[in-house]
Write a sequence for this structure.
């Protein structure tokens, strides 16, 4: 058989023949309604077909689904195949999931970030599964000489009730492969889902729980060398001189090389290069501002009152509103830099050869790794291959390619395959932090307690725009001004799980609580009133779905028994980010005069829930993360040098510090959105607002443990 | 360099390394047993936890020269097929997110349950609070330890 005549050849993927023969289906990831196509094994084996993705059905009934996106703990390697398998109507235990390598020609978006994988691929994945199913049905209809409409499928079996006949997908795979792929394929109704919405376990459980090599740091290649890189001692420093003689003389050391402001020690084992690196004698000299945390505090204060901020959004006449206000509320909130601290530190394998570069390792953006490598070496990107390993977390850190380039530079200099590893200290002091930010909020209330004016100024250190000017309460206040300043610093920053909103949500939702108190209104009702206003008479453009905001608010309030409980103090928080809506209610109880964070309720609207187990895990993990960093996370600097380098001085939350968490989903059948990030932003304020209820102390700075207000209540 | 004979997962291994090399790196670099993970190198996170004579031990600060004839068990040797009750419980509860910390969590839990097969909640919290999970899977870790404690011991 041959490829569909109307299919563009470039849309096809090179396929390896599957053992035993059967149906191989490629489908185009480039557009939601692209035509799937069928190829036969022989043509695939000849290697001259170029598909965009595939699923295959072997004659023994095994279904293989390629998962193109990097797996960082967000559960995509499980969720994607669930969607395909649902439409295919297949026995989940017969599905095998294989991680695809980087090929953006074929897969388009191969990124773990922005909670964007599911929204991007929802239609494409369903289409792939449904098309294959229809072809199997047609194959059976042809064989049995009955109309396709009388045929049903279930768990990988095709059935004809009238004649009481059955065939497995495996038995029909070869016949199906000879058919032309249909164009108009009907997708299932949400209510008919059998797999989507169930609890399905992580597809990598077995190798994870038995310690199989799976992560980048586990990668091994015969003859590879190990490398560690010494980065400058502080941001704003550069190398003056290097004396590597002692290091070079140490056992197992093959070479010491220098690139840019880094010195790499290369040798036969991790421990040997680590020890030799300690023997390096490097002198540094000043190359820029050597900033300390105290400098940042001063810069925040200066810029907070400076004219000429960049205006991000302006609705109505904010000055007039403040002039006629009956009451004005004003507060400032501040957060520190944060390292990402994924449990697996940065590492990568690189082999720079004369004919091209092989890269293997943990990356959230394999395409960036490839392109930056090509740029660095002055070669064409198609000379670089990237194999993605499972990642021991990322939280945004692996969206950068700096550590990949460390591996590439070293391999290029020593002309050998190299596994480059950062120690925890390298990882924590290696930059790309969540930026430090200070916000000032001002609200104008009229005599009835309505918010008639709202001002937000954000000042960040390498934060770009530290506001999200179109997020709530924009759209709900007639007179509004949001502006910002950015201070350029040698300290590098980058996206950190729920970029900007990870702290902005805390500041804004805490401030709205302050405003509700000042207005004498219930915090939940106060927000519902604002949302009602955004719906009925919006101020400017409204870029969130007001009804979905209201729905999660009401669900959280109902489940937590808002305002109806005795003996606990509740705090509310609501945020829309990365296309999903999450409301949270924190509960604090007083125990022997001290507040204890007992429980957090979360109500989430991410549309259709694909995998209950994975979705709940993302929400609970996001809340634990949000709470941990709000409580403890603190990265400070002295003359450009990070003052925390490992978990003895930088605290992460532990098991005995977590509150109970209960998760609820809005069931609305809307196309699904991601969950890797949206549960984190609301958490800090749900806790702080509950603590305020319990103690009358308002927490405005993170981490809480460093706050005087917090110290006074514990 | 010196030659060390090690008893790991019921087998004999040899490694020619410096005496101060932590067991963690001997396992990972020399013996190809990479299930034991590096997280901090200073006994703060628990990712590198193995059993030495049945005791949960942080292999990142355990020099190979100090092991002698002690019996070492790593995640690869906890059971042949992932059928140890703790591994089963971890699968049933679907604990892992990124999965990186879980070998250390499992080894900590297995050693703990051996000593205290029917722990109460406070004991579980105390036993499991030295291991960091950056993904925040703590609720399920707690639940999985409870589930494991109801299974027949291995
Ligand atoms: S790596 Fe040993 S405790 Fe962290
Ligand atoms: S599962 Fe990712 S660190 Fe624990």
């Amino acid at each position: 058989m041959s490829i569909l005549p109307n299919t563009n050849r470039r849309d096809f993927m090179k396929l390896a023949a599957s053992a035993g023969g059967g149906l191989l289906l490629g489908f185009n990831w480039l557009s939601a309604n692209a035509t799937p196509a069928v190829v036969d094994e022989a043509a695939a084996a000849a290697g001259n077909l170029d598909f965009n993705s595939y699923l295959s059905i072997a004659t023994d009934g095994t279904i293989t689904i390629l998962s193109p996106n990097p797996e960082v703990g967000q559960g995509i390697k499980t969720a994607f195949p669930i969607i395909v398998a649902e439409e295919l109507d297949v026995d989940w235990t017969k599905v095998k999931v294989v991680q695809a390598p980087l090929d953006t020609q074929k897969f388009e978006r191969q990124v773990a970030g922005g909670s964007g994988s599911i929204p991007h691929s929802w239609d494409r994945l369903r289409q792939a599964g449904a098309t294959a199913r229809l072809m199997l049905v047609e194959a059976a209809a042809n064989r049995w000489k009955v109309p396709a409409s009388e045929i049903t499928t279930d768990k990988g079996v095709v059935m004809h009730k009238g004649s009481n006949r059955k065939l497995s997908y495996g038995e029909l795979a070869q016949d199906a492969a000879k058919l032309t792929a249909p164009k108009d394929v009907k997708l299932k109704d949400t209510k008919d889902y059998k797999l989507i919405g169930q609890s399905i376990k992580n597809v990598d459980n077995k190798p994870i729980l038995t310690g199989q090599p799976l992560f980048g740091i586990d990668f091994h290649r015969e003859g590879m060398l190990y490398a560690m890189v010494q980065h400058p001692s502080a941001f704003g420093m550069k190398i003056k001189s290097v004396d590597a003689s002692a290091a070079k003389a140490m056992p197992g050391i093959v070479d010491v090389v220098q690139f840019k402001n880094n010195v790499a020690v290369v040798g036969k084992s991790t421990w040997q290069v680590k020890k030799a690196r300690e023997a390096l004698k490097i002198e540094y000299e000043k190359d820029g501002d050597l900033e300390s945390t105290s400098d940042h505090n001063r810069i925040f204060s200066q810029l907070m009152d400076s004219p000429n901020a960049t205006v991000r959004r302006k609705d109505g006449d904010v000055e007039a509103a403040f002039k006629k206000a009956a009451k004005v509320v004003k507060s400032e909130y501040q957060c520190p830099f944060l390292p990402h601290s994924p449990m697996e530190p940065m590492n990568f394998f690189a082999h720079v050869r004369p004919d091209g570069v092989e890269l293997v390792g943990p990356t959230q953006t394999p395409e960036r790794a490839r392109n930056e490598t090509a740029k660095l070496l002055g070669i064409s990107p198609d000379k670089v291959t990237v194999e993605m390993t499972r990642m021991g977390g990322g939280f945004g850190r692996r969206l950068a390619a700096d550590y990949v380039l460390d591996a590439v530079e070293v391999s290029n200099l020593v002309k050998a395959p190299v596994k480059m590893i950062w120690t925890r200290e390298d990882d924590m002091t290696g930059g790309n932090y969540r930026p430090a930010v200070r916000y000032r909020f001002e609200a104008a209330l009229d005599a009835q307690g309505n918010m008639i004016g709202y001002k937000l100024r954000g000042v960040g250190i390498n934060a770009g725009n530290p506001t999200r000017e179109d997020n709530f309460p924009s759209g709900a206040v007639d007179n509004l001004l949001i502006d910002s300043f950015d201070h350029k610093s040698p300290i590098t920053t980058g996206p950190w799980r729920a970029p900007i909103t990870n702290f902005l949500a805390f500041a804004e939702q805490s401030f709205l609580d302050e405003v509700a108190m000042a207005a004498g209104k219930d915090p939940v009702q106060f927000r519902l009133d604002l949302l009602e206003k955004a719906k009925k008479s919006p101020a400017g453009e409204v870029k969130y779905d007001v009804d979905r905001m209201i729905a999660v608010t009401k669900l959280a309030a109902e489940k937590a028994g808002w305002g109806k409980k005795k003996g606990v103090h509740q705090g509310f928080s609501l945020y829309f980010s990365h296309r999903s809506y999450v409301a949270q209610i924190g509960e604090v109880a007083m125990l022997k005069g001290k507040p204890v964070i007992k429980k957090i309720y979360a109500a989430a609207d991410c549309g259709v829930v694909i995998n209950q187990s994975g979705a709940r895990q993302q929400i609970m993990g996001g809340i634990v993360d949000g709470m941990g960093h709000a409580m403890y996370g603190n990265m400070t600097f002295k003359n450009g040098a990070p003052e925390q380098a490992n978990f003895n001085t930088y605290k992460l939350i532990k098991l005995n510090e977590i509150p109970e968490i209960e998760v609820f989903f809005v069931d609305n059948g809307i196309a699904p959105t991601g969950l890797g990030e949206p549960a984190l932003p609301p958490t800090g304020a749900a806790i702080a607002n509950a603590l305020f209820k319990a103690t009358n102390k308002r927490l405005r700075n993170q981490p809480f443990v460093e706050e005087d207000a917090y110290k006074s209540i514990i | 360099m010196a030659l060390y004979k090690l008893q790991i997962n019921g087998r004999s291994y040899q490694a020619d390394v410096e005496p101060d090399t932590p067991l963690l790196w001997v396992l990972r670099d020399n013996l190809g047993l990479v299930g034991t993970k590096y997280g901090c190198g200073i006994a703060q996170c628990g990712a590198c936890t193995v059993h030495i004579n049945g005791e949960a031990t942080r292999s990142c600060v355990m020099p190979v020269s100090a092991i002698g004839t002690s019996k070492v068990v790593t995640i690869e040797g906890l059971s042949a097929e992932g059928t140890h009750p703790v591994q089963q419980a971890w699968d049933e509860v679907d604990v892992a997110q990124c999965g990186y910390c879980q070998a250390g969590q499992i080894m900590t839990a297995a050693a703990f349950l051996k000593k205290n097969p029917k722990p109460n909640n406070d004991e579980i919290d105390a036993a499991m609070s030295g291991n960091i999970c950056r993904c925040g899977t703590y609720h399920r870790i707690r639940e999985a330890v409870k589930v494991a404690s109801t299974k027949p011991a291995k």
